Amino acid sequence: MGCAIGGRLLRLRGSPAPPKNGAAVRLLVVEDDPRLRDVLRRGLTEQGHIVDESADGEDAEQVASSPMYDAIVLDVNLPKRSGLDVLRSLRRQKFQTPVLVLTSRDTAEDIIEGLDAGADDYLRKPFVFGELQARLRSITRRRSAVETTNAELRSGDVALDLRTRVARRGDRRIDLTPRETAFLEYFLRNAGNVVTRRAIEDAMFDRASEATSNVVDVYVSRLRSKLAAAGEPAVLQTIRGAGYRFGAQ
Asked: Beta strands of the chain (E only): which ranges?
């Protein structure tokens, strides 16, 4: 059975398949278009997932605050309250559930706004169902990796607590957005090495063709400014013609 959404064909077939890891993933799909919502629900259910639905922002915030979800698929344009407002509210309440944002907008500014609100990834409409599945696998793997890794990453006097997501430089707490925190984590994991823009795009966005170098430059600039806000020496250097390196000279 197939269903055309936004000019693409989402093809669903067969009976529900058991999850490969033996445990069902519980998902919340927040989408006001009933046709697309139904396609997503059926497709994800056929992959062996447990899927709940919500159709507006107010209801979504109440439902999404449950800790039982492994990931949330969240549309930006929702009635009653926008998806990004819902996401910001959840992050303020310290809910760490991975969120994949669906959006019809794809400028650098739109991408940055969504990631700053707390999105773990974004997917532009129209999309193919296989890509949605891949994005969900990616963000849920990231969460599992954080939960099983060491509690802290450190380079020099810069540290990041992986459980609380609190960053510090010496005794100073650094207030970062969720996406800035993710960038800091990436640089700390690669401290001392030169990393290219392409490597950052591949690691942070999963799809370099839409994660433009301009977006990377914006986040690097923000992070560099916050790390040196109290006049400390720079720890995030631009290596001309190569990329970036994190760590004291």
From this structure: 2-5, 8-11, 26-30, 50-54, 71-75, 99-103, 121-124, 152-155, 158-161, 167-169, 172-174, 194-195, 236-239, 243-246
